Amino acid sequence: MKTRLETLALARSEKGPMSSKNLSYTIQKSGDAPQLAVIIREAISRNAYEFLNPPIRNLGIKGIEKMSSEILKWPSRKPDISHELSLTASLMERAGTGGSLFRNLYRDFLKE
Fold first, then answer.
1. Fewer CB atoms < 10 Å away: N or C end of the chain?
2. Is residue 41 part of a domain?
3. CA torsion sign, 67 to 73 to 96 to 16?
């Protein structure tokens, strides 16, 4: 993929909660590489632990459980629930859910 430097500069300077604020890192090797098998197993274990024990109720398994109970309340909150569900589906189809890219990357990583 190619882009002009001006476009890259604009993207790196974009505002918002997920912006990089022009942050960059330089990584240099210092010593021998660690045993990747050990590190990967530890990272997967930590990830699973965090998923099952999230710090707040709308992340991980607790987030899934919370959403599953909240969605049952939707019909009582809106007179035309079919419109609301269609709008939600359309937004998710066009804009995504915010985590799909990372879930797909992680799925592929685990598969590999």
1. N
2. yes
3. negative
Provide the token pair at 15: 């505002």
What pLDDT score does 45 carry? 94
Rg (alpha carbons) of the chain, rounded to whole number: 20
Domain coverage including residue 75: 34-111
- What is the DSSP track for 25-89? ------SSPP-HHHHHHHHHHHHHHHHHS-SSTTSHHHHHHHHHHHGGGHHHH-S-HHHHHHHHH
Query: For residue 10, is it within any domain?
Result: no
Tell me what pLDDT residue 42 has.
94
Whether residue 88 contacts residue 96, with contact meaning beta carbons closer than 8 Å, is answered with: no
The one-letter amino acid at 79: P
C-alpha to C-alpha distance for 74 and 81, rounded to whole angstroms: 7
8 Å CB contact between 26 and 16: no
Q: Is the model's pTM score more than 0.70?
A: no
